[in-house]
Structure formats: structure tokens, C-alpha cells
Write a structure and sequence with these properties.
Elements lengths: L12 H7 L3 H24 L4 H16 L1
Length: 67
């Protein structure tokens, strides 16, 4: 289970946030948020350029080379 609880049957996120008054809990929450944001960012960086954009870039390169 993630630090945010399960969206299907676990503790709702809002309830979890409301009970987090301890600084250790807040630090754990911040660490979990940081980790998840980093994962999403790295997944985004690893995505390949769509074929449509690759074709457009190739056409642009050809036009630039012809000048």
C-alpha cells in the first residue's frame, strides 16, 4: 500500500491528511510526495517521441537542408 492509502477501500486521502499533525507523519508524507513526483517526471522523460512528431521533424530537416 502506498503512503496515500488505497483508493479502493483504504483510508481516504483527506482523512489521512487531517490526522497528520505529527511532524514525522508530515515528513513521511512529503517524502512520499517527492518520490512519486520524481517517478512521474522520470517516466515522462523516458517516453518516446510520437511517430507523428518524428515525421514532422524529418520533414523540417529536409526543408532546412534544401535551403
Amino acid at each position: 500500500m502506498s503512503a496515500f492509502g488505497s483508493p479502493r477501500g483504504g483510508e481516504p486521502i483527506q482523512e489521512m491528511l487531517e490526522r497528520m499533525t505529527d511532524s514525522k507523519d508530515a515528513a513521511r508524507l512529503n517524502a512520499a510526495i517527492d518520490e512519486n513526483l520524481r517517478k512521474i517526471y522520470h517516466e515522462f522523460l523516458d517516453e518516446d517521441i510520437p511517430d507523428r512528431f518524428k515525421l514532422l521533424l524529418e520533414e523540417l530537416r529536409k526543408k532546412e537542408a534544401a535551403k
